[in-house]
5-dehydro-2-deoxygluconokinase
Amino acid sequence: MSYAFNNDREYDIIAIGRACIDLNANEYNRPMEETMTFTKYVGGSPANITIGSSKLGLKTGFIGKIPDDQHGNFIKKYMSEAGIDTSNIVVDKEGHKVGLTFTEIKSPEECSILMYREEVADLYLHPDEVSEAYIKQAKVLLVSGTALAKSPSREAVIKAVGLARKNDVTVVFELDYRPYTWKSKEETAIYYSLIAEQSDIVIGTRDEYDMMENLENGNNQETIQNLFKHRPELIVIKHGVDGSYAYEKSGAEYRGQAYKSKVLKTFGAGDSYASAFLYALLNGKDIETALKFGSASAAIVVSKHSSSDAMPSLDEIEQLIAVRA
Amino acid sequence: MSYAFNNDREYDIIAIGRACIDLNANEYNRPMEETMTFTKYVGGSPANITIGSSKLGLKTGFIGKIPDDQHGNFIKKYMSEAGIDTSNIVVDKEGHKVGLTFTEIKSPEECSILMYREEVADLYLHPDEVSEAYIKQAKVLLVSGTALAKSPSREAVIKAVGLARKNDVTVVFELDYRPYTWKSKEETAIYYSLIAEQSDIVIGTRDEYDMMENLENGNNQETIQNLFKHRPELIVIKHGVDGSYAYEKSGAEYRGQAYKSKVLKTFGAGDSYASAFLYALLNGKDIETALKFGSASAAIVVSKHSSSDAMPSLDEIEQLIAVRA
Amino acid sequence: MSYAFNNDREYDIIAIGRACIDLNANEYNRPMEETMTFTKYVGGSPANITIGSSKLGLKTGFIGKIPDDQHGNFIKKYMSEAGIDTSNIVVDKEGHKVGLTFTEIKSPEECSILMYREEVADLYLHPDEVSEAYIKQAKVLLVSGTALAKSPSREAVIKAVGLARKNDVTVVFELDYRPYTWKSKEETAIYYSLIAEQSDIVIGTRDEYDMMENLENGNNQETIQNLFKHRPELIVIKHGVDGSYAYEKSGAEYRGQAYKSKVLKTFGAGDSYASAFLYALLNGKDIETALKFGSASAAIVVSKHSSSDAMPSLDEIEQLIAVRA
Amino acid sequence: MSYAFNNDREYDIIAIGRACIDLNANEYNRPMEETMTFTKYVGGSPANITIGSSKLGLKTGFIGKIPDDQHGNFIKKYMSEAGIDTSNIVVDKEGHKVGLTFTEIKSPEECSILMYREEVADLYLHPDEVSEAYIKQAKVLLVSGTALAKSPSREAVIKAVGLARKNDVTVVFELDYRPYTWKSKEETAIYYSLIAEQSDIVIGTRDEYDMMENLENGNNQETIQNLFKHRPELIVIKHGVDGSYAYEKSGAEYRGQAYKSKVLKTFGAGDSYASAFLYALLNGKDIETALKFGSASAAIVVSKHSSSDAMPSLDEIEQLIAVRA
């Protein structure tokens, strides 16, 4: 079955949340202490998803806040050249900086990151910088969980979701949990639940749903039973190498396989998954196909150096699916 | 028509929010600069409402946080002696103080207050101090808007409302807007709307609904039209001396008159109104009678010195209604 | 021996620091929980000292910051009526409040206080609100230790002391230690030492010198040995009922007896001591006499209800000294 | 004339302050937006000076705070391998990060930096992490002005300077002004003056002395006249390409020429100057020679890519001086 969107809209996806800088180790398979040079990429889950979607051909826009400095300029230029509408990316005037992520690739299995998230511009997006006129031009509003971590970005997202619902824009919530900025697990669970219950489609890993439910070793059936009491119509739960599951409120369930890949690093898997999954859904493909698109896109990105620049083309995805069929 | 509660519960009302200290000028009809002595009372909207309800005979409990000092001890003792269950009032261990309100009564028309609300204990109620086992013993969870002004109290209230809904506890939202602590009108509107949409009964002044809608000179019909799209079943909008209006989702509307009174000060009118209105509803009286109870209780309290100690008895309310009939 | 001041100045004493509100229990010899009414007085060590000095006939001024509210107005009016020049008391425009001190008098031996010191106006005195033109009109700049507890008041005091030294104004440092606002004992010791080393006269209790030295059970001889390496010329160390000691850099030592008194509460003893001690010094009396003045003034204030309004007259002090001689 | 140190000490220089990470653009002569890769170096003025001094053969130690992460590990390892004693570098346990400096080299004349200084570990050095036993092993305590920008690092430095004076350690104050973290010019001036007045040797650019004096276009003669009233014995004021001036309390004045160089970037000039100047003084060379050493070292570093790794050897410095003589 395919998912129905409000097609009378200019943008396929408008995303809200952070756009940051990744500094990826050029010398890898070693500890970061021994890495001497880094390459700069645009990063941040919702930015990556939007870049990936745009590269696949979707018409996209972005709501976010960037600093008034060289890193901010770079992000805006890169996203604009990727075909994303940047008219609603606000330039911070209070001296906040862009978030940074240094990546450490010790081995394909041992990747870690070193984050700079203090006083970052993206968390200073104000609710009055969120425009109803803009949101109502979208089929999908893509919300990233990390944007809920702190005020005023938190309120900006709550407002955006309210405006999306009011204007029949499908709300897609990518859980995107990062253990930074949040004060406690309980606080995280409260805001994740609040937004998940008001969303139409929820996407995340099993671990992220556990954060939302403030428990360990949660169970997919209980998760969907609770969420389907509220607004969600489609819930995607990813289980890493064991593949991903999609659940519809109607009761239908689907399982997607993970595609094996020569893994360089694990970063960027989730973002590439979401961008291709949403591309497929928005192009009227059925959910089973969308799961394949997501998995194929993730398999390609984990074999490459970046999480944004490495987003695959439609050809690459379709070819991988065909080869592995 | 009367309102149906889940009667299989031990408590009529459990309130969540602040309990503070009022310091009322003993010498009045003068500026506070010339007031030399003050009398101490328990204050804070949800505490006052609970005290008022308890005095009328309801079985009540309170969820809140008080400091570990003489003012905190006084509050707990006073509320306990007023018949309120204080088992869920947490004692702060981090040095936060109780909020203070100095009242200035220049004339019955010119009352003002001087608030101490920096780092107050009530705004440090943590979500993990809110107990599902306790909330599900109540017919009504009474939520006060000021408790939404800051984290972690904000999250404690969002959690409490979620638990109340899950356990079929009627959520009553007393808007209780105070222009302290809130960072902006937009922030206020976002959280007021969020909780109002998830409540069963909403009570406030026309000005407070304007805050919730982030506009000026709002219109009752538009307010109820928006809120009735969500969970609310009963909406009370107070217009001061012009009386109050109650709206049911079914379409029924009621108007209650304000009773004239020899006004000493205007403080405490809203709290006494809510306590008597809820008493009437919980005792199966129809909405028109409940509006009279609210107005009568308010008329009595504004003629007296305090907002808590002066809460009327059932006899006083019924007598006033009878005399003015 | 008497102490020489720069007599070619308009003001005897200009004090810098906090002016607050005391709320003294009207019903005493009981815990504060049972106190129902409070009387309002001006409080805060440097304000009390200035009021006391002014009452004795010194020409005084005050540098401080008060809120733009009824309590701020009251303080300015009271101090002005007490004869103090208030031209350098700045009105805060950022919503800070005045500090509050609720006093609890359980018995003459058990007095405690409940302080409100969060975001108080006095700690927001900015260095650019300290005027060299004003300070250089004084014989004495009186500095209170509590004003060092937080920026920007801390920097305002450091600046004021620098200006006083530059303009040959005698710097008197009243240690006035209060365990609020300070982050650690080490921080306290660092700033107390910094200012004590730059002062001409230092006055405090033995416990306060221990705070300055970050040790317990300190020794007067070691204290004066360390301080006399720096600027101080005269050091007064108070030992409660065991009297007080004055040390001169020249090597002279003096001991003053404490006068017995019918104690109502212990608050205000130090402030009244300082005001009368400085009065005597500034009037050319010898140090032994100044110690008597300090003790007599303290003995009078501890027998009365307030710490500011109760400051004695010259007659009262001289009479007490005469009677006890 | 040469400067006398307390030679009965194990370390020539112990520095206190920040050790950070520089991320220097690999592709230069372009805006940073177009720079895609960065090379990582140790940075931060006192770290650079210590590295430079150590490379020249001085025995050095460092008091500072680094994060418990890969960047922190790198710094400690690099400094240790450079011969610096790192036993008093504390590892932060509260999640603070290392400061970052991205450098932009548009042209030799247009260099700018993008700093990350929010919640950095170096500013969380606590006074109780400063050891008297360590400081008293040094001939020189080198203090960097930026460490005064915020508590508790500010108090750690004030304490260290007090301990140095108490133990006859020469205090060298490198003004090292950076317009980050400081709240106001007045605050900067207050703490810069406080430490300068307590130091033996002060080194800075004319602009930095202007910050200390809170004025514009200051005058060397007035600067030294004010400072020589206090502790300083030797004052170095640098005027960029116009050379540098050294003033002794005795009245002697010296001028050092700046050496021309093929400038790649201007960063690191001050740090390399200080390290070679202090090397010369500590080796008993006269002040004129020390000025030459400083200028030569600066000329070498500005022609290279980093500010730490590029610190010259003694041979390089002596050769440059010989060639340009």
Remarks:
- Chains B and D do not touch (no CB pair under 8 Å).
- The two ends of chain B are 20 Å apart (CA to CA).
- The CA atoms of residues 182 and 188 of chain B lie 6 Å apart.
